[in-house]
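Run folding on both entries below.
>entry_1
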Amino acid sequence: MNKPLTAIIVDDEPLALEGLRLRLEKIPEIEVIAEACDGDQAILLCHELCPDVLFLDLRLPGLNGIEVVQSLQSDILPMVVFVTAYGEYALEAFELNAIDYVMKPANLGRLKKTVERIIQRHNPQNSVKEKFKLLKALGDTSGVSISELENWLDSNEPLPTAFCQELVIKNSDHEKIFLPVKDIRWIDAAGDYMCVHTNKETHILRVTMKKLENQLDDRLFKRIHKSTLVNINCIKSIRSLRNSESILELGDDIHLKVSRNYSSAIQKLIESKTI
């Protein structure tokens, strides 16, 4: 078994201090090595003992819990868990990178969850493994490479996607237009060209239906006919026809026929409210 993490507990109420110690003693991963009843004593003990964790009340005689953390130098600052009866300091506490903010009375089950969080933070190897597993799962579902997702984690950019987010279209003046994919309502084929329809206009693009379909997110664009793709977010209603076909209504008097081969899938999509 790994050596337990050392902890100092701080509270000016003797009964609260005793209760916290008794509960933590039931968690083998934590060893309480000292107790303090005020902020100054807590700082002295941290300098002397260098604990792994500091369980700290917020309202203390003299220095309060926030001031205790601010007074400790970064090289001896333990992982901090605030244990308090007051919820109004939570934001300020987490700005100090507190591991947890536990409301009194702290029961054993709640403290066990806190200790699990402490161990996770204390063991960076576990954190790396968990991070990789999450990125791999996200990559498997999004089609984005893990390296690209790692770069995204360090940025403020929207979640990257393997699918095209803009279509590059040349207008009649041979100028390039960058058309956001989310603005497309539907696409239909006209010979060797694709007609790309938005709310305001129609753009003509020379590309095959198959190639264009492969560039678009199939969770957003669904085939309703061998020559038609529709943005499911633009569907307003669906009406069944007698021959197992159906009609989609997109608003602005736009009606698109869903062929028999695709009608059942589109009906189920709408009924499951995935639009």
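>entry_2
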Amino acid sequence: MKIAITGKGGVGKTTLSAILSHLYASEGKRVIAVDADPDANLAAALGVPSEALSKIRPIAEMTDVIEERMGARPGSSGGVFKLNPKVDDIPEEFGYRFNNITLLVTGKSKEAASGCYCPENVFLRRLLKHLVVNRDEIVIVDMEAGIEHLTRGTTEAVDAFIVVVEPGQRSIQTANTVKEMAKGLGVKKVFVVANKVRGEEDLNFIRKLLPDAHLLGAINFSHDIMESDIAGITPYSIKSAVADVVKIKTALEQSAG
């Protein structure tokens, strides 16, 4: 199962990514969890100990590795560099491993915009494609509010593209934009997960504004999830949230299978 999760900032992409990662890992499956959001929070949501957080190095900041593999210095634009660099050893060499989960933080170039044709972004796109197309682990990608790092070759191999929404106009607008972008890259299965749902009225609001969406399920609004974020505790410790995601996971496997 290869899953890409996106949506507007703050809707709960990382919460869903973290709980799904733990659920698959608890079944004995090997999981690669990829934090592809520049505002990287997946490590904390997974429950990585605070003392280890500073040791997790974003791939985009590994300038020596990227220069060696690409043949060009990160931050440079144009010029000649490799389009098919070696990336198959990245998870084992640079991933943070715990509880059957390997965490990779992609990071983002400080010198260049996400859409630039520069060594670090080409390297990250190549890495994501390798993870989705060539690996046999469960791969869960916590993305930013868009799909800039995905290519057609990557998206065609994604089993599920999930857009997380919350009851709100801006969240729905982002979802519609992402759905169009995904369609342009040939994504066949786009699913929606509702988060911070307070009741049936919120679900009806989302269904009304996303009438053609395949809604996998909902994560109910929870003060415990908010408190877990404040305390730096993984939302996987919140039984109600886990129960909601178990239902979503079941619906996902039935729909994407």
